[in-house]
TrEMBL record:
One of its GO terms (biological process) is glycolytic process. The keyword Kinase applies. The keyword Kinase applies. This is Glucokinase. One of its GO terms (cellular component) is cytosol.
Length: 315
């Protein structure tokens, strides 16, 4: 039985990180919330984010006033006013609080996926090393998402098994070519831009004409292996910069394709190439993480952190 505070209303979970749609669900407050039906609203022709909320209120007969709400967005979840990256909308914390009656929790979608790993429902497969992430011991993990974009987050676990997820914009760090082949590809990808980012390199579709322009000698299957190697180098760079010696978790549909068995050696070669901190790197595992409705599940896990500690322990 999951204890619920008297008069406690459901939580509203909103995934606003996809292009063309907003996805919403409600869950009963709990230390381990369980998602029900997800409601998707196409945003074409809808003028504001508030109109989406009001439509959900009408169609699902769920009064918005008094709801605790978590919203996952693409990009940096910082500031009073936030532009939603994959739409024309801007949201404000004060405006949402006026509608809901509570300040919303707004987080990055990669951070939401990192929170979701604590739900115990993820499918976690080793890419290198053995075992699974242990959130019962203190330490630091990194999370990388490769899907509609490239993002990263940090998961800190303290001595009491409490967690904190730190958002980053690691995908927008500048890419540095390591050889002549990468330099040619990076120059083509950069085009007229001032610089080329890790996201630009790893999100390049393997059938993009830029490949033939920059690397005409490279067979199509080798394009995937080159990018998988870059993912390995990106992962080890983040492990060093984050201090995430307990391991790196990699998620997202594009990441799943990059980490297919035929490409794993390319990942491991780049990941293991560094000689500095070789003992730590050699022992560091990497996992591929797949989870149903990971972003919404992660929002729910984040809201669960704000429950009174007595209810969290009893649930």
């Amino acid at each position: 039985m999951r204890p619920v505070m008297e008069g406690e209303r459901p939580w509203l979970l909103i995934e606003a990180s996809h292009e063309g749609a907003v996805r919403l669900a409600t869950v009963s407050p709990s230390a381990q919330p369980h998602l029900g039906v997800v409601h998707e609203i196409g945003i074409a022709g809808i003028p504001t984010f508030t109109d989406v909320l009001q439509r959900f209120e009408r169609e699902k007969n769920v009064p918005l006033s008094g709801l605790r709400c978590g919203i996952a967005i693409a990009g940096a979840a910082s500031g009073e006013t936030i532009s939603l990256v994959r739409s024309r909308w801007t949201i404000s914390r004060a405006g949402l609080e006026a509608v809901l009656g509570h300040p919303p929790v707004i987080l990055n979608d990669v951070a939401a996926r990192a929170w979701a790993t604590r739900s115990g429902t993820a499918n976690i497969v080793p890419v290198r090393g053995i075992g699974t992430p242990s959130f019962g011991r203190p330490g630091r993990y990194g999370m990388i998402m490769v899907e509609e974009g490239l993002g990263a987050a940090i998961v800190d676990v303290d001595r009491d098994s409490g967690a904190r997820v730190l958002e980053t914009e690691g995908g927008h760090m500048e890419f540095a070519p390591a050889n002549e082949r990468e330099e040619r590809l990076a120059k083509a990808v950069r085009g007229t831009a001032a610089m080329v980012s890790w996201e630009m390199m790893l999100m390049l579709d393997r059938f993009d004409p830029l490949w033939s322009k920059a690397l005409p000698e490279l067979p199509e299957p080798d394009r995937a292996r080159l990018q998988t190697g870059l993912l390995g180098r990106f992962a080890i760079n983040l492990m060093h910069s984050f201090g995430a010696w307990q391991g790196m978790m990699i998620t997202g549909s594009r990441a799943a394709r990059m980490l297919e068995p035929g490409n794993r050696m390319a990942f491991d070669q780049e990941f293991s190439a560094r000689r500095r901190f070789s003992r730590l790197v050699g022992a560091a595992p990497v996992w591929r993480v797949d989870q149903h409705e990971a972003v919404l599940a992660g929002i729910a896990q984040r809201l669960a952190q704000d429950r009174p500690s007595g209810l969290r322990a009893a649930a």
